[in-house]
Specification:
Length: about 260
């Protein structure tokens, strides 16, 4: 089977399973807001993180241009079906700090994200067992994760911080200037940033929960270093941009008054 067909079938299996699960939640009539959000957060995170396991094969078969296109399309698909899931601890923290959700709500959502991230490999392996390709068959039995950075680690940390800061800043401005265009711009920016990160550092992060699902426990990086590299800079960069953006809005409002 052609690599492009294999990847398309893989992505379709993941999205279909998670979307059917979300519709089953609708059928069950779950109305409790926090429980409903947590369930959607779990399946949203599961969907995104499981798709990431196929992305490295797309890069291998079609290069960074193929990776960029796939990430751009997947981000838009995820956005259309995720039912308001954050799929990022940074976004959840932002909502908490802006009083959009309670502390309890944040904790429940955070653990839903963690569980979704942990289950992603199991779902990916079940699809690999279908043996759509020799690579899938091999990964189902002998999957191995070894990290080898192209550049210095401190440069990667700086990149994660700066890019997340810029991404949140651009998204904040775009959402006020042109809300309808903002999601498309966000997808383009994220796809570009991830492609650049792979090009210069040989690894893609930017979203801590996705990095946790795909890279936590990989050889070549201990657990503490994982959080230092993929969690701390991304979250602090995102939240710094959020605070600056919020201050800018408050100052603008005072000037109008």
């Amino acid at each position: 089977m052609e690599p492009i067909i294999v990847s398309l079938v893989y992505y379709c299996c993941v999205v279909t399973f998670c979307e059917l699960s979300r519709r089953f939640i609708d059928v069950l009539g779950v109305r409790q807001p926090i429980l409903r959000h947590a369930l959607f957060e779990f399946f949203g995170t599961l969907q995104v993180c499981t798709c990431v396991y196929e992305n490295h094969l797309v890069t291998k078969n079609f290069g960074l241009k193929g990776f960029f296109l796939v990430v751009f399309l997947l981000l838009n698909i995820h956005r259309m079906v995720n039912r308001g899931a954050f799929i990022s601890p940074a976004v959840a923290l932002e909502r908490l700090l802006s009083s959009g959700i309670s502390v309890f709500h944040f904790v429940v959502v955070f653990w839903a994200q963690i569980l979704g991230a942990l289950c992603a490999f199991r779902l990916a392996r079940r699809i690999w067992w279908i043996e759509l390709s020799e690579t899938h068959a091999h990964q189902a039995v002998n999957f191995d994760c070894v990290l080898s950075f192209k550049g210095p680690v401190f440069a990667l940390i700086f990149y994660e911080f700066c890019v997340c800061f810029v991404l949140r800043t651009c998204i904040g401005i775009a959402s006020r200037k042109n809300p309808r265009f903002s999601p498309i711009l966000a997808a383009v920016l994220f796809a570009t940033a991830l492609s650049s990160e792979i090009l210069f550092f040989g690894v893609a992060g930017l979203n801590p929960i996705i990095a946790f699902s795909r890279l936590f426990g990989c050889k070549g990086l201990n657990n503490i270093d994982h959080f230092v590299i993929f969690w701390f800079p991304a979250i602090t960069g995102w939240l710094l941009a959020f605070f600056i953006d919020r201050s800018r809005i408050m100052i603008s409002g005072l000037k109008k008054d």
